[in-house]
Design goal:
Elements: E1 2-9, H1 12-19, E2 37-44, E3 57-61, E4 72-74, E5 80-82, H2 89-92, H3 96-109, E6 120-124, H4 129-140, E7 144-149, H5 154-159, E8 164-167, E9 179-184, H6 191-197, E10 198-206, H7 212-216, H8 219-223, E11 235-238, H9 245-256, E12 264-269, H10 273-280, E13 287-291
Parallel strand pairs: 6-7, 6-9, 7-8, 9-10, 10-11, 12-13
Antiparallel strand pairs: 1-2, 1-4, 1-13, 2-3, 3-5
GO molecular function: oxidoreductase activity
Protein name: NAD(P)-dependent alcohol dehydrogenase
Domain Enoyl reductase (ER): 12-290
């Protein structure tokens, strides 16, 4: 399918690629066009396309080749879903990568849908791109959500549905065995601290690859401890975001029903991409979106 791109949001992967931190992802592929999620309009369909028609607005997530920050992209229909209709198409570009990561961290990895109502979830970095979605989706699933973020932006977490507000400046979290699920979007707390506040049978889900150094430090040992009085081992895992059309469609429906807000901080034109990256690196709440000139069919 050929899609005319309306906008693409800035994600951590884009920032890492620009800084040269992605290593093997760029070998033999430079120059590289950034952008992994997009919103836009279908311009043309191949003979095997059955889910969309020319003129439909869509959102999607590209593969590791990127390329969404362009006027047009070719993308497989399995990576797309109908765009939500209740928000501007440019804002919808902030949904795919961050929204899918949060949804799959909570439900594919932490199995929140199989846990009882009132399950205690800690969202670390609760107002960032992924964290803002994780906070909302956990609350929608009936969890009791604690948001950890800088004090000045905790009111944002409250508006997203967090029940408890925890300031990062206050230092280590008090208590033991407080949380059933920890979604770590920021890598802000040491592994030993996470082990103390995680309940037996609980899970830590990182949205970043788990550093082998952490595993060598013995995280797997404390996560896997069992005792006769505990319901099961603690676990540590990381989410590798998948471009599942069904999941993306689910997110779009939640947006249209008013249950999920797309947390957009700023929308800038492609000629202000450098400013967009600076904003995305500033740790202010929400997502930064870059708009493209509309492609002509």
């Amino acid at each position: 399918m050929l899609v005319g791109v309306a906008a693409s949001s800035v994600n951590g992967t884009d920032l890492g690629l620009r800084r040269g931190a992605a290593g093997p992802l760029t070998w033999g592929r430079l120059p590289l066009t950034l952008g992994f999620d997009l919103s836009g309009t279908v311009l043309a369909c191949g003979p095997q396309v059955s889910a969309f028609a020319v003129g439909e607005d869509v959102v999607g997530l590209l593969d590791h080749s990127g390329g969404a920050q362009a006027e047009m992209v070719v993308v497989d229909q399995s990576r797309l879903a109908a765009a939500p209709t209740t928000v501007a198409l440019t804002h919808a570009a902030a949904l795919p990568l961050a929204g899918l990561t949060a949804l799959q961290a909570l439900h594919t990895k932490a199995h929140l849908h199989s846990r009882p109502s009132g399950t205690r979830v800690l969202a670390i970095g609760a107002t960032g791109g992924i964290g803002a979605y994780a906070t909302q989706l956990a609350a929608l699933a009936g969890a009791h959500v604690s948001a950890l973020a800088r004090r000045e932006i905790l009111p944002v977490a409250a508006r997203l549905g967090a029940h408890d507000l925890l300031a990062r400046e206050d230092g280590p979290l008090p208590g033991r065995g407080r949380f059933d699920v920890i979604i770590d979007t920021a890598g802000a707390l040491p592994a030993g601290h996470l082990s103390r506040v995680l309940r037996p049978g609980g899970v830590v889900v990182s949205v970043r690859p788990v550093d082998p150094a952490i595993l060598r430090a013995g995280v797997t040992r404390w996560l896997g401890r069992r005792s006769p009085t505990t319901p099961g081992p603690r676990s540590l895992t990381a989410v590798a975001t998948r471009a599942r059309s069904q999941d993306l469609a689910r997110l779009a429906r939640l947006v249209d029903s008013g249950d999920l807000r797309i947390p957009v901080q700023a929308v800038l034109g492609a000629d202000h991409a450098a400013q967009a990256h600076r904003l995305a690196e500033s740790a202010t709440p929400g997502k930064v979106v870059i708009t493209m000139e509309p492609a002509l069919a």
